[in-house]
Amino acid sequence: MDLGIDKLIGRKDGEIGWMIFNNPERRNAVSVEMWAAIPGVLEAFDADPEIRVVVFTGAGDKAFVSGADISQFADVRANREANEVYSARNASATRAMARLSKPSIAMIRGYCIGGGMAVALSCDMRVCSDDSRFGIPAARLGLGYGYEGLKTLTDLVGPSFAKEIMFTARHFTADEALRIGLVNKVVGSGELEAAVREYAVMISRNAPLTVKAAKMAVREAVKDPERRQLDEVTKAVDACFESADYAEGRKAFMEKRDPVFQGR
Question: Domains of the chain: which residue ranges?
Answer without folding.
Answer: 2-203, 207-254
